[in-house]
Design goal:
2 domains; two-stranded parallel ribbon; GMP Synthetase, Chain A, domain 3; alpha/beta; Rossmann fold; 30% helix; 206 residues; globular; 6 helices
């Protein structure tokens, strides 16, 4: 951040979109909540950074932020977008990260989101994404045996992200997504659906 700020010349502030669930899970803001997981935007900045930090949404939940955005006249298309992790798709690739894996996951995730829109159920889901698992399994393509990667689909319903339930998506929708991913994404021969709620699981896998 500091290096990029110096390129700009007169930057004084670093603005982050930190939300209250990030704080609760990482560092207790009030009281003694347990640290559940580390978030890149909570306690991860270097102490030597000269930029001043501003986090206007730090004590708000996602649903509260959307209400504020609506009052400010922000387009619904932006307000209703699913949350996306600050570190990017890297946290959705379990194991070592390579360019090949990132490109593979981008394609699988794009198909998942496209199908949610096609079936008209994108707004029914609080968050949806694909995860690339560090396992390979046996499959068959035509007359040949394959040994390729597995993609997990994750979709949840929630209000504030503190708790969440796995989304009961239509079987024909899941079949369409699975068929497209295994047909269009080279290197994937298996698609699974995560039916875990939060708690005990978190929404993201990492």
């Amino acid at each position: 951040f500091q290096a990029e700020a110096e390129k700009i010349g007169d930057a004084e502030w670093l603005v982050q979109g930190t939300l209250y669930p990030d704080v609760i899970e990482s560092v207790s803001l009030r009281g003694s909540s347990v640290t559940i997981k580390s978030h890149h935007n909570v306690g991860g900045l270097p102490k030597t950074m000269s930029l001043k930090l501003i986090e206007p949404l730090r004590e708000l939940f996602k649903d509260e932020v959307r209400l504020i955005g609506k009052d400010l006249g922000i387009p619904e298309k932006i307000l209703e977008r699913h949350p996306f992790p600050g570190p990017g798709l890297g946290v959705r690739i379990l194991g070592d990260i390579t360019r090949e894996k990132v490109e593979l996951l981008q394609k699988a995730d794009k198909i998942f989101i496209e199908e949610l829109h096609t079936f008209g159920i994108y707004k029914d889901v609080w968050q949806a994404f694909a995860v690339l698992l560090p396992i390979q399994s046996v499959g068959v393509m035509g007359d040949f045996r394959t040994y390729e990667k597995t993609v997990a689909l994750r979709a949840v319903t929630s209000t504030d992200g503190m708790t969440a339930d796995w989304a009961r998506l239509p079987h024909d929708f899941l079949a369409s997504v699975s068929s497209r991913i295994t047909s269009e994404v080279r290197g994937v021969n298996r698609v699974v659906y995560d039916i875990s709620s939060k708690p005990p699981s978190t929404i993201e896998w990492e």
